[in-house]
Each structure stands twice: as structure tokens, then as C-alpha cells.
Specification:
heterodimer; A: mainly alpha; 0% strand; B: alpha+beta; Four Helix Bundle (Hemerythrin (Met), subunit A); 6-stranded antiparallel beta sheet; 4-stranded antiparallel beta sheet; 22 helices; 10 strands
């Protein structure tokens, strides 16, 4: 057991060094691309949150917490905000994370 | 194996330091490769601390007495499941558990956010590794769990008898999971403030971790209460003890946070409040960890004094100063994007709920630390439960009321007409409950009556919400009621899981209110054949019991007990067997050969008849002073023969003496002190806890991605159509 312990420690140390240094052994990434990707991620998050708000408002209306007039007004405002987010998303160049589903959807819209 | 464990901890500490430097450099120099390397340092930390923890667990399970920590906290006679849990009964083991849990949660959150929050994540990584370096540093330089003994003893000291309870196996890991999970949103809040990116994204990415922290901490607190009720022998589940309060404080502020974060997500409001809340919660979690073991405040739960006061106080001071500096310097960025439209809105009610929870936390904090502050000023002042209750009871009433009102309010605004329509049935239910209680003569405690009314309001609101939601789904999708309810919950886990949690809390508060206000409790000295009363119950001391507990051929404990007959209106209800167990002290020289058996740890085994309506709870403590002359006589006799007879003969004689003493207790029993309690609805505390547990699980459960995609896709198409027409 005494001779095993140093071997285990050396093996563990080697694995840790390999794991931690792996990104440094690769090339540097393009900063401009990263900034655009960050912006896209922000807007996609904002879009998802807005959709959730629209759903919640609808559930509030259907469970009697909002009057019809209030719901329509809130829903109209939220959709306007969602449209604005989509407009800003469209202004960005297509990102590498955009899935095939989104591309197909866009093609369908164009058609 | 100790060498491997020690090396893992040294490597873990070095990895933390490297990771902090790499992450900060990556963030400052905009070098994603370095930031990524820092993130991987967290994964390495998780692997190293896991290996160290496994080494320690193996040592405990094998009872490797060459490890100092095993020799002082376990023994060959300790059951295997308590041996597994004994690791965290020590200071060193509990610090290692902290480090391990922290590294696991940190790895998980950094893996889940690997493609998001790229500006915030490196700073959050540095903060999480900072905690890792702190605990790793303590384990390397101050209190190593891998210390070894040159001459291992033949037998270990064993686990503290008070901790030999199933709850105690799970309670510390649950509390520590809560504390370490709160470090995640804390770290991301710090990161978001540093880069001034204070939108809801950091909240969205760590919300589930905050919820999980709240969930695990809540389970830990409840398990602690259950342990206190059934093991400590004083008859209560909550004593406003400093160690209990230390876990309650981050839970209270964490509860406020998981409500108010929704306002920031939905309305872009309360950014300063949310940042401050989670920074305070993270700091309170570290304070809680420290208080449990420090012994700086008198507590029935203090199992040892810590030598780590200065490092912990330094860390806490750093966290407070850093948090304040960040919030103050970022106050311009933290301005709300919108304001509250109406006081009749969900955000307004959440805000009131937050104020109540923070007020509760402030009350608990103030009275918990008052003894420490006043002692420093030269005149120590301590307060008991009545002082806490004076403030906490009205605040708890408001809190329960708000959790009944909140679900019925819509975001942004609710009209009075809608309020009237939504509240008719819940208020009618509450009024009926009050009328029934008054008719039944329940007028002794108005706060309790109000609590019953508010709790029934919460339950009625929850039922109404589920019914209306299911009806809405039935109308929209044509599903049957069961299907509609299941789909409703599945698609809105957070909302409906939260409602179930409210329901569970209401039940829990009903149990607390009833058992506190309508409890019959008293202490009495009884001889066999005598009776006493607890409420409507008559309790007769039938006869004494005594036994010797042996494990692996050696005496483990001496138990003195009683058989109690419980009757109500002459009808037999239960036979209870409370007892007190005495574990021998390891100090043989000063306490005497016989006396040492009564000078070690003593534990109470409660005799209890638990029911949905009422618990009859009893504990006993024999008057050992009446047996003292015989014990002293035995000590003198054994001191006289010490060294004159062979050790085997002496052990045999001692065995006979103890057996004689135990038999004598049955034939000539001294009077015994009994605590008898009749408490209504205590079971509802545990039932409410289970409901909270269920609701919390629903809220925590990840949403099915395909469903989310479909929903998003549908709305996206609708918005896209609107966009096309515009």
C-alpha cells in the first residue's frame, strides 16, 4: 500500500494538469464572434422570458385573475415588446448556435 | 490511504488558487481559453474532493483506527450506517463535506452555463473557487481529516450517543447542501455586479439552484426539529436555539429571494433588493456553518468548540464588505426598469411578503446575537422563546395571510371586481372555520384561531386555483379533469408546485399554532403505582425497567426506564416505555470504576403515542442521586482492589456489580422525574413538511424540453405572424 500511494498521487496530479490545461493548448477564439454570440444569447433569453410572460398573463386571464379588457391590453403590450426583441434578433448575423429548426422556420416564413 | 487523502486536499487547494487566477485573468484580458481553464479547475476540484471524501468514508466504514478522526468519532461497535455518517459528526469531516458538496454544485452550474453568461461566469467561477480555497485551506493547514496516530488504539471513542438517530444521518448533509447551493446564486450575483450585467439572466441561470438550496435547507431544518422532538427529551421541536436559528436565517432570506427574483424576471424590478438578498443569504449560510461548530453561542446542539473562529470571521467580514461595496458602486446600473403599477398586483404582494420575511430574519438575528453583543459590553443578556414569539407570531400570521392572497393577484394589476369574485369562496371557508372553532369553545388563543382561519384561506385558495386552472385547460384542450390537472401542473411546475408548498406551510403552521397554544405539559416526580394527568389523559407509572446494553462483548450503556399506562376516561389508550440511557465515560481514573458509567453522555428515549389529532409524549429521568451511596461504595471497593487482582477478575467483578445495580433499580426503584405532554396536531407539522417537500420537488423538477419547444414554437409563430402584418 505504501508504494501505491505515491503512484496514485502522481496519476491524479497528471490527470488534473491535463484537464485544466486542455483549453490553453488549443487556439484563441475570435472576440468579435463571441460578442455577437453573447448579444444573441441575451436577446434569446429576453424573448423566452417575454413568451413566458405572455403565457402567464393568459393563464391569469383564464383562471379569473384578469378581466378581458386588462388581459387584452397587457397581452398587446407584451406582444409589442416580443416583436421588438425579434426585430433586434433578426438584425444580428446568423449565429453558429442557431439550430436547423430555426433555419427551417425562417425558410418557411420567407416562402 | 491517509497520504492519498492528504495529497488530494493539497492538490485541491492548489487547483483552487490556480483556477481563481486563470478565471480572473480570462475575464480581465478577454481570454476565453483561460476562463475555460478556470472552469475546468472547478471540475478538477470536484474530482479531488470526491476522492478525498471517499478515502475518509472508507476509513470510517473499515473502522481504520490509525486515522485520528476515526478513533475519536467511531468504534468497532458502531453500526455501519452510523459509521458512514460519523464522518460529518467531526469538525474536519463536516468541513470536507462542505468542500465536496460545494465542488459538486459548482461543477454542475458551470457545466449548465458553459455556453451562457460568458462575461459573468469567470467571476462567478473565481468566487466559487474562493470558497473552495477557503475550506480547502482550512483542511490542509488547520484541521486535517487525514491525521494519523503512531499507536492506534484497540477501540475508538464511538459516535456521540445523541447523534445515533436516523435523522442525524441525513440532517447535516441536507443543511450543508442548502448552504453550499446558496453559494451558487451568491457567486453569480457577485459576477453580474462586477460586470454590471444585472438583467435577469444570472437569476434565470441560477434560480433552480436557489430553489434547491431552499428545499434542502428546509428538509434539514425539519429533520432537526424531528430529532429534537424525539431524541432530546425536552418535549419540543423548536427552542429558538442559536444553532437552530443559524439555519433558519438563510432559509428566511432565501425564501424572500425565491419570491422576489420572479419580479426581476418578469418586470425588471427590485434589482438592488435581489442582489442584496442573495448576498446576505450567502453570507448567512457561511455564518450558519460557523455557528454550528463554533460554540461561541450557548446551544444544546453544540458538539464541540471550533478553533477556526478567526478565519471564519475574516471570511464573513470580507463577504459583508465586498457585498456592500458592490451594491453601492453599482447602484446606478441596478435601477428598476419599471415601477409597481398597482398595490393590488402580485409583485406588490411579493414585496410585502419579502418585507415580512426579512423582518422575521432581522428579529431572529437580533435576539440570537444579543447575548454575544451584550457579553462583549460586559453584561450578558439572553432571551427565551416568549420574546421571539412576541415578534414572530404576528409576522407569521401576516406571512400566511399573504400566501393566501398572492396566488389570486395577477401580475401588473388586479381590479377590485376580480378580487371580490376570486375571494368569495376562500373567505367564506375561513369564516366557517372561525365560527366552528368558536362554537367548539376554542377561545383561549386568538393568534391560533387567526392562524387556523388564514391557513384555511390558503388551502381554499389553492384548491380554487387548481380547479380553475384545470377547468381552463379542459375548455382549451378538451382534456378530462385528471388529465387537465396533470397537464396544468406539468406545464406550470413552478407556479403550481409553489401553491402546493404554500398549502404545506399552512398545514405546518396549523400544527405549530395548535401544539404551542393548546399543549398540556408538566414535570412530576412519581413512584411506581402513582398517577398524573396530561390534559384529558391519565398516566400511571406501572413499574420500573432496567437493562444493560452490550455490543461486541463490552458494556455499551445502562438503561433505566418505566412502563406507563395511558388511559382516557378509563379507557386504555397506550402503554409507553420512556427510558434514559447512560453511556460510560472514557475517563476511568477520576470518576471511579462504577461511577464512570453514570458520568458520560446520557440520552432520553421518548415514550410517545403519536396520532393525527394528538401526541401523548413522555420522557423520564431517574433520580440517580438516591443511588449515589451504593455507587460511591462500589467505587471505593474497586479502588481498594485495583492492582491487587488480575484485570480479568476485576472486569468480572465489575460486571457483577453493574448487574446488581441494574437489578436493584427494578426491585428498589428511586422516584423518577417525568415530563408528560399532551400536544394537539403535532403530526400536522410533519405532514405539512411532507407536502412542502412534494411541492418543492414539483417546482424543482426540470421542464420537459420537447413541451417547452412546442410552446415556444407556437408563440413564436404567433408573434412572427403579428410581425408580418405590422
Amino acid at each position: 500500500m505504501d508504494f501505491l500511494a505515491p503512484l496514485i498521487v502522481i496519476a491524479v496530479l497528471t490527470l488534473v494538469v491535463l484537464l485544466v490545461s486542455a483549453p490553453l493548448r488549443g487556439g484563441a477564439s475570435a472576440r468579435a464572434e463571441e460578442r455577437a454570440e453573447l448579444r444573441r444569447a441575451d436577446l434569446e433569453t429576453a424573448r423566452d422570458l417575454k413568451y413566458r410572460e405572455i403565457r402567464d398573463a393568459e393563464l391569469d386571464y383564464r383562471t379569473g385573475k384578469l378581466s378581458n379588457a386588462d388581459w387584452r391590453r397587457i397581452d398587446r403590450d407584451l406582444r409589442a415588446e416580443a416583436i421588438e426583441i425579434l426585430r433586434r434578433l433578426d438584425e444580428l448575423p446568423p449565429g453558429p448556435t442557431e439550430g436547423a429548426e430555426n433555419v427551417k422556420e425562417k425558410e418557411k416564413e420567407k416562402a | 490511504m491517509a497520504t492519498v487523502g492528504r495529497a488530494c486536499l493539497i492538490l485541491a487547494f492548489a487547483t483552487c488558487i490556480y483556477g481563481i487566477v486563470a478565471s480572473l485573468y480570462g475575464a480581465r484580458a478577454h481570454r476565453p481559453d483561460w476562463a475555460e481553464s478556470g472552469r475546468r479547475a472547478v471540475y478538477a476540484l470536484a474530482a479531488l474532493s470526491t476522492l478525498a471524501f471517499v478515502v475518509l468514508e472508507i476509513a470510517f466504514l473499515r473502522t481504520d483506527l490509525s486515522f485520528t478522526i476515526v478513533a475519536s468519532h467511531s468504534s468497532t461497535t458502531t453500526e455501519w450506517f452510523y459509521r458512514a455518517a460519523a464522518a460529518w459528526s467531526s469538525q474536519e469531516g463536516s468541513l470536507l463535506l462542505w468542500l465536496w458538496l460545494l465542488s459538486v454544485w459548482s461543477s454542475l452550474v458551470l457545466f449548465l452555463t458553459r455556453n451562457r453568461l460568458r462575461d459573468v461566469a469567470p467571476y462567478a467561477t473565481a468566487v466559487l473557487l474562493g470558497f473552495g480555497a477557503f475550506f480547502g485551506g482550512l483542511l490542509v493547514f488547520a484541521v486535517s481529516p487525514f491525521g494519523v496516530l503512531a499507536n492506534p488504539p484497540a477501540e475508538g471513542v464511538g459516535l456521540n450517543p445523541l447523534l445515533r438517530h436516523p435523522s442525524m444521518m441525513i440532517h447535516p448533509p441536507m443543511l450543508y447542501s442548502g448552504y453550499t447551493l446558496f453559494a451558487v446564486p451568491f457567486a453569480f450575483a457577485v459576477g453580474a455586479l462586477i460586470v454590471r450585467r444585472v438583467d435577469a439572466e444570472w437569476i434565470r441561470s441560477t434560480r433552480r439552484f436557489a430553489l434547491a438550496a431552499w428545499f434542502f435547507l428546509g428538509i434539514g431544518i425539519l429533520l432537526g426539529a424531528r430529532w429534537s422532538y424525539s431524541e432530546l427529551g425536552w418535549g419540543g421541536y423548536w427552542a429558538w436555539d442559536p444553532v437552530e436559528n443559524a439555519s433558519l436565517l438563510p432559509w428566511l432570506t432565501g425564501t424572500a429571494f425565491i419570491h422576489s427574483l420572479m419580479i426581476q424576471e418578469k418586470r425588471g424590478m427590485l434589482k438592488i433588493w435581489n442582489s442584496s438578498l442573495i448576498l446576505a443569504t450567502g453570507t448567512l449560510a457561511i455564518l450558519g456553518t460557523f455557528l454550528v461548530r463554533s460554540g461561541i453561542l450557548d446551544s444544546i446542539h453544540a458538539f464541540g468548540a471550533s478553533t477556526l473562529g478567526i478565519p471564519f470571521v475574516t471570511l464573513i467580514a470580507l463577504m459583508i464588505a465586498g457585498s456592500m461595496a458592490l451594491v453601492v458602486t453599482r447602484r446606478d446600473t441596478l435601477r428598476s426598469e419599471q415601477s409597481i403599477d398597482s398595490m393590488l398586483s402580485r409583485e406588490a404582494i411579493f414585496l410585502f411578503n419579502n418585507l415580512v420575511l426579512v423582518a422575521m430574519a432581522f428579529v431572529v438575528f437580533f435576539w440570537t446575537f444579543l447575548p454575544l453583543i451584550t457579553e462583549a459590553l460586559g453584561n450578558k443578556v439572553s432571551v427565551g422563546p416568549p420574546v421571539y414569539n412576541q415578534y414572530i407570531v404576528p409576522l407569521a400570521l401576516i406571512l400566511v395571510l399573504l400566501s393566501g392572497i398572492g396566488p389570486l393577484a395577477a401580475w401588473r394589476r388586479t381590479t377590485l371586481k376580480t378580487v371580490r369574485r376570486n375571494f368569495i369562496w376562500p373567505i367564506a371557508t375561513a369564516v366557517v372555520v372561525v365560527v366552528v372553532l368558536l362554537a367548539a369553545g376554542v377561545t383561549q388563543s386568538w393568534p391560533s384561531v387567526l392562524m387556523f382561519a388564514f391557513a384555511s384561506l390558503v388551502i381554499a385558495v389553492t384548491v380554487q386555483e387548481f380547479a380553475r386552472g384545470a377547468a381552463a385547460r379542459k375548455a382549451m384542450a378538451g382534456e378530462n379533469p385528471v388529465e387537465a390537472t396533470v397537464t396544468l401542473i406539468r406545464r406550470n411546475r413552478r407556479r403550481y408546485g409553489g401553491y402546493i408548498v404554500h398549502c404545506g406551510m399552512a398545514l405546518l403552521f396549523v400544527g405549530v399554532a395548535a401544539s404551542s397554544a393548546f399543549q398540556h405539559a408538566h414535570d412530576v416526580v412519581l413512584k411506581p403505582g402513582q398517577t398524573t394527568r396530561a390534559g384529558a389523559y391519565t398516566i400511571r407509572y406501572v413499574n420500573p425497567t432496567s437493562s444493560i446494553g452490550q455490543r461486541a462483548g463490552s458494556l455499551e450503556k445502562i438503561s433505566f426506564g418505566a412502563v406507563l399506562d395511558v388511559t382516557k376516561n378509563g379507557k386504555h389508550i397506550a402503554t409507553l416505555h420512556p427510558s434514559k440511557a447512560y453511556y460510560p465515560s472514557q475517563d476511568q481514573a477520576d470518576l471511579g470504576a462504577v461511577g464512570r458509567f453514570f458520568e458520560g453522555e446520557a440520552t432520553s428515549e421518548v415514550g410517545m403515542k403519536a396520532g393525527v389529532n394528538r401526541d401523548v409524549w413522555t420522557a423520564m429521568s431517574p433520580d440517580i442521586s438516591k443511588m449515589r451511596p451504593i455507587i460511591d461504595k462500589g467505587d471505593k471497593a474497586f479502588a481498594g482492589i485495583s492492582g491487587k487482582v488480575p484485570p480479568e477478575t476485576q472486569a468480572q467483578l465489575l460486571g457483577q456489580a453493574i448487574t446488581g445495580l441494574v437489578q436493584r433499580y427494578r426491585t428498589q426503584p428511586p422516584p423518577a422525574n417525568f415530563r408528560v405532554i399532551s400536544s394537539p396536531l403535532v403530526a400536522w407539522i410533519w405532514i405539512g413538511g411532507l407536502v412542502v417537500f412534494g411541492g418543492g420537488l414539483i417546482a424543482l423538477w426540470p421542464s420537459g424540453d420537447p413541451v417547452m419547444r412546442r410552446v415556444r414554437g407556437r408563440y413564436a409563430a404567433r408573434v412572427a405572424r403579428d410581425l408580418g402584418r405590422a
